[in-house]
Amino acid sequence: MSTTYPSGPPCAQRGGHGHPGLIHRFLDRLPFEADDPIVTLQEGSTPLVLAERVSEIVGAEVYLKIEGANPTGSFKDRGMCCAVTQAKKEGAKAVICASTGNTAASAAAYASRAGLKPAVIVPEGKIATGKLAQALMHGARVIALRGNFDVALQLVRELVAEHPIALVNSVNPYRIEGQKTAAFELVEELGSLDALCIPVGNAGNITAYWKGFQEAGHSPMMFGFQAAGAAPLVNGAPVEKPETVASAIRIGNPARWEEAMTAMTTSNGRIAAVTDEQILDAYRFLAANEGVFCEPASAASVAGLMVHGAGDAGRVACVLTGHGLKDPQTALEQAGGVVPCEPELAAVESAVLG
Ligand SMILES: *Cc1c(COP(=O)(O)O)cnc(C)c1O
Predict the structure, then answer these.
(1) Using an 8 Å Cβ cutoff, are 140 and 120 in contact?
(2) This prediction's pTM
(3) Structural domain ending residue among the three candidates 172, 192, 213
(4) Structural domains of the chain, count
(5) Which residues are known binding-site members for pyridoxal 5'-phosphate?
(6) pLDDT tens digit sequence for 40-87
């Protein structure tokens, strides 16, 4: 049974104190007006941290854009505040997405905040525990599909053609608009940069960054990285059964394929693959040496940089797309074990110092 509360007057969704959400911060560069029903959890304005150890290894100045610091723990919040604001503006009552996890968590959070009903379709058994917990807690109807992400996206596209439900996957142009603001932040903070390293799944984010850089008058080399078992852009053909430990980029047929390739070719960048082993090496390295815990898919950006090099880039930013706590299972499998100990000083001493 749930508790009922007395209802008071509605309050404005300005987001409260502290930094404004990204719609308010970049209002002049987004397709919204100040009097739109803006839905925000004060996303964006994420930390940009110098990675000294990674910098030493690759011989360039390397920064980490910590997108796991967004309200639901991934960059998806940047696009979702815009997609859900637009859905609310258009009078939608429900939103839906196919998701490898983070889009589901973000859609559920923003929809609940906006008073819309969220439904999410995820590949059964292939979504990290934290993301599933979030989607459920935010009140989403979570549908576990016996099929992969690509099949899920195809099905939701067919569903929304028949029903008045807003589709909030990155095929939605408002998602790209919101996500491009991360490029604005990088340009504002660094002045300029030579290369961006980014994991590529459905290819919405690399498309968004490139749009943002172009609008800001910059053209860093776009280095996109895919997991070797889910690397359609590298192979030049869809992958029917994508497999990787980096569940957020376990996608075989990216929706924004052409745009991603355009970003990489026109920026003199590249698309390359990294193995699960290389991804997990970078994942552990960042946590143990930089104090930054990201999820496996995010580590693909740093893995790619460490394996394939920075080229002639002097200043590089790596996008760490999601927080490490999203996927505690993989973390526990990859980390060392705990030390059992009797409650006696001598035992504690040898456990701590041993
Ligand atoms: C969604 C996601 C990606 C991939 O982004 P695309 O826009 O699908 O290319 C990478 N990492 C994480 C953590 C994600 O949630």
Answers:
(1) yes
(2) 0.95
(3) 172
(4) 2
(5) 102, 201-205, 321
(6) 999 999 999 999 999 999 999 999 999 999 999 999 999 999 999 999
